[in-house]
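Annex B, item 7. Sequence and structure tokens for protein A, then protein B.
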Amino acid sequence: MANRCTRIPEIMFPREGVDLSKWAVIACDQYTSQPDYWAETDKTVGDAPSTLRLTLPEVYLEDADVAARTEKIHQTMQQYVQDGTLRTLPAGVVLTERWSGGSCPRRGIVLSVDLEAYEYTPGSASLIRPTEKTVVERIPPRLKVRQGACLELPHIMILIDDPDRQIIEPLFEQTASYDKLYDTDLMQNGGHITGWFLPNGPETEVIEAKLEVLCDRETFNKKYGCTDAQALLPYAVGDGNHSMATAKAYWEEVKKDLTAEEQENHPARFALVEVVNIHDESLIIEPIHRALFGVDADELLGALTDFYNGEGCKAYVADEAPKSENVHFFPFCSANKSGVFVVENPKWAIPIATIQTGLDAYLETHTSAKIDYIHGTDVVVSLAEKPGNLGFILPDIAKNDLFRGVVFDGVLPRKTFSMGEAHEKRYYMEAKTIVK
């Protein structure tokens, strides 16, 4: 089918007897400023088979011995394949249910997506796109780890917008009839995860057919109130964006030496991911606030007012939030001034795109000013109390607005939202070959 982005993979999984609580390790891009976390993980794993030996925690990415670490990773991958530590399952998908301390689990489907349907450059109309800007400078060091690897282990989360919960959620009403692949605690406060294997067949065909409905133009236009001018967006990369971008960069290298026929089913063309409904109750999407340093409050607010007025909007400072529609507003505070910055008739679909566009323009001409991205309003307020600082409080992000923002505004600004705490991020469990 023309719009099919997914592929039923042949997943690799540890042989029976491997301690999965030591095998599964959190995504390598977490705890990048906390080497103690990774030292404790290393101590916990010991000599047991583990994905820790197949990945490079980014806390070590700038170390002098990174090349030696990378070579050891590649050797261990080969070892795990050759000695049977990893076995290849029949083609199929895995349903995952992850409890990480909340009142409900996160549920998803592990399958493959076609990297030919993914692009991360701004303005792309590909069917799989990132939610936030990709920092291309982050790709080369990660690409070096992938080059020479025979396997990939995913921490990528792909989001779908299924408010009626028709695709993923019904599958979990039938888990008693599926084969349980794993059921284990996760180390270092990671909670508990269970996985069920669904072999390729009638059930996976139903999954793919339902996913393909997300690509239907009429349904898409009705959902977002858009026209054919807006590119379809059935899949958005919600987590692991730079891992996905690295997989794409590697595939672009590999495909250069392949014929069109050889490209069709090459394993490097497909990336293993977990597909999650953005409306899953476990997903808490929190705004990331903005703090400015080295600024004069009146000058900054005046510059922003001029910028938005120049863009055809109406911008001003108010004492309280307006009641009118078609307006984006941002409470702000500083050492000697507070209020609400208002933008009426904004040309951007969601508030974060509005404020970040203005701040980017300001920072481009005020190079001594700095910006930071802050979790928690209390932290923003405490920072803003210091002279020369100003904080903007961003509104909560509606789940519907995340897809809508990408559809209408393009890739969202960096640090738009946070999706869960560090310990809730995906742990490596499944693997897939990327070589012929």
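Protein B:
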Amino acid sequence: MKQNIRYYCFYFLCILCALFILFFLITILKNSNKPTNQGQQYKDGQLSLPLNINYPRLNTPINISDYIIQVEKIKSSSPALYRKNEHIYKAINEWINRSLKTDEFYKVGLNSYEMVGQDGYGNVHLTGYYTPIIKARHQPTAEFKYPIYKMPTSSGEQLPNREQIYNGALAGKDLEIAYSNSLMDNFIMEVQGSAYIDFEDGSPLVFFCYGGKNNHSYSSIGRLLAEQGEITKENMSIQSIKDWAENQKEEQLKSLLIQNRSFVFFKPQYNAEVIGAAEVPLVANASVASDKSIIPIGSVVLVDVPLLEDDGQYRGRRETRLMVALDVGGAIKGQHFDLYLGIGDKAGKLAGYYNHYGRAWVLQP
């Protein structure tokens, strides 16, 4: 009798093992055809909700000091936003001080809610943005002939679209605040939402922050170039768009840009830090732009970020960051974060390469 029981137990265990192995192999085969070249991962399986309670086992965030500085800037620049999220910021400070792990936020009264991602497997789209430094002049010259405009005074009428502006619709209205030598630089400045302007006259750089837009529809230039077969979807980035633009005549460049009817205006600020939509100075690698209908301004997110090599390729290295949602963008919709990467050419080159995927958790009570 005992022998039979042992036999049946052994037989049952064999079946369980076989089922487990079968499930494991099916999972591997199921995921083997899914793309991974842009940092996609499938280890958490399919997620059912936009935000799913999940306890991630990741490395300790590498940017804790930057995160702390970012929260201090929220506290000093926007007390109302700080008070709204104070309980979260203080709980995370406790988590930091206690040297807890990434799956232990519950010990300080927070839950980690994994974002479903664009594919349902937790792969959140990650792009990068930066603050360009653009050469300009106060008055137009033969070379510096592309105006940068301030926001027109509201008169209740619809503002002109990009094509109309390029054709002079705002000329003679005293709205020009600088002139650059590159139409593409001006457009990238619009995409990034701000820039430092170097008038090359010995004066300090002037920060041109977002000053408003014309409220015409936004169209992605990258999508248009992909549809036209100019750049493949997989290779699409700000850098590839800039490279394409360098080989085009002004007429061809304008004919592409005017398909994005939206136009951004700017406001000069002297001795100013880079600020986002929340009117808070941004700290590189500690802040993101998000879709505020999903991730409200001031939210803290834990992001598993794929790292790129100098040639822009992802080769398996990743790092964990604590980041705060402090900005928005016309192209930042849904399961998408735009990582703020800093100021100048080095940050710009990296931002130009980012078109990848990482997992992200929103930290909430």
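Comment on protein B: Confidence is low (pLDDT under 50) at residues 24-31.
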